[in-house]
Amino acid sequence: MEKTEYNLSPEVEIIQKLIDMNLGDSGRLRYIKNSILKGKYLYKTDRNYLQAKIDQFHKSHKFDSNAEPAKSKSFTEYYQTKPPLQSKDTAQLSVEKNQERETKKEPNLESHLAEQQENLRVAKRKYQEVLERKKVTERSLSEKMDLLEKTKQEYHHILDQILEKQRVSDDLDKQKQQLQRAQREQSVLEEKIIQQKSEIARLEKEQEEQLEKKTKTSEYMGQMQKKLDAKKEYQQLLEKISQTKQSYHNFQSQNNLVSNLEKEHQDLESALTQQKQHVSQKVKERLEKISILKEKAHKIKDQLCELEESKKQYQTMVQLLKEERKKLTNAKKAQKSLLAKEKELVKIKENRLSIIRQIQKQKGPILKKIDQERAKLSNQNKVLKKLQKQKNNLHQLKDRRQAIDQKIKKKKTQS
Q1: Beta partners for 5?
Q2: Could you please report the per-residue DSSP string of 267-292?
């Protein structure tokens, strides 16, 4: 590049004003100022940069429109009308130019490198902060997922309890139906017991009546026995009459008497026979009725035993009914408790769903931010590699400059 020498005091003041007002890169402006004060050469790019900043300075301070072009023109014309350099040794001039070029590059590279390193440190710090936030978010997400899993387990547990409650409720309904059926059977049994009691009372009454009739029959049999005894006496009398008949058979009157007596005897025997048959029939009927009564009494006894057994079963069923009612009451309480837990579970589930939705909403921006930070870090790593390469080049330039300085010293010593 073309180089020129510049050493104008007003321009140095303007550069100092630019530095004080922070118009432009202060490091580069200081470098240009020091170069001008030391009478060093400026690159064309530095001249253009300085001219642009001076124009910006004039515009910001609203200088006179005629004076500003004149100053800018004189500043530009100075470089065009600059007197030529004094003649020097060609090798020494080339070495000085290289040294000045390296000296100019070195501050810019060091400043740029320091700035990039600072940016890299800031980026690394931001990346570490993002990683920390990511870890906190992941830990919070893990805790929320654990809480969600625990909530799911609680939900399944409560669901199992609800199913168990439903099963218990079904069992209770079945037991209630069985209890109602047992109550109906109990009512039917009680009606049968009442009917059997009525039948027993009727049978007892009939038995009493039959016993009274039997008593009357016994009295009648006693009377018949008396008649039989009278018949025996009559037979004895007949024997006596027969004996007397033999003695008085000659007497007609006695024969008539005997005939009458025989006729009476026949009538009496006929009456006795009929009476005996009637009594036998009556006795037979009474015996049959007594047998029937005994059978009924036996049946009544069996029914009383069955009734006693039914009574015991009824008492057992009543006890079971009380226990079932107690279980039903406890089951209703448990059902109310389960319903309350179910409502709590629904609330917990809604809260968990809300947390999950919040996590899903937060997860997207966080992941996006992490990807952005990773991309920035990747770019920063690239910049760091580039800066490292520039740093290596700078060290190489320093080594070359030291070598050139040594050559210059040797040539100065030789000259």
Answers
A1: 41
A2: HHHHHHHHHHHHHHHHHHHHHHHHHH
> How many residues in total does the chain contain?
415
Residue 108 is predicted with a pLDDT of 60
Helix (H, G, I), strand (E, B), or coil: what is residue 41?
strand
pLDDT at 350 over 80: yes
Q: Which of 107, 114, 116 is nearest to 46 (CA)?
A: 107
Q: What separation, in Å, do the N-terminal and C-terminal C-alpha atoms of the chain show?
A: 29
State the Cα–Cα distance between residues 46 and 3, nearest whole angstrom.
Answer: 10
| pLDDT surpasses 70 at 382 | yes
Query: Is 161 within 8 Å of 278 (Cβ atoms)?
Result: no
* Strand 41-43 relative to strand 3-5, pairing: antiparallel
The answer to whether 115 and 28 have CB atoms below 8 angstroms apart is: no
Sign (positive/negative) of CA torsion 78, 84, 88, 89?
Answer: positive
Rounded distance between C-alpha atoms, residue 118 and residue 113, angstroms? 8
Q: Residue 146 is encoded by which pair of tokens? A: 């654990």
- Mean pLDDT confidence for 137-153: 80
DSSP H/E element including 42: strand 41-43
Q: Residue 82: what residue type? A: K
Closest C-alpha among 42, 52, 41, 43 to residue 14: 52
Judged against a pLDDT cut of 70, whether residue 147 lies above it is answered with yes
CB neighbours (10 Å) of residue 398? 12
Please state, in angstroms and rounded to a whole number, the distance separating the CA atoms of residues 183 and 181.
5
> Please, what's the b/e burial string for 111-135 (b: 16 or more CB within 10 A of its CB; e: otherwise)?
beeeebeeebeebeeebeebeeebe
The DSSP-derived string for 81-139 is SPPPPPP--HHHHHHHHHHHHHHHHHHHHHHHHHHHHHHHHHHHHHHHHHHHHHHHHHH
Beta bridge partners of 42: 4
- Band (pLDDT 50/70/90 cuts) for residue 9 is low
Residue 336, both tokens: 């109310």
Q: Domain boundaries in the chain?
A: 1-80
Closest C-alpha to 193, from 301, 293, 303: 303
Average pLDDT, the chain: 74
The three-state secondary structure class of 5 is strand
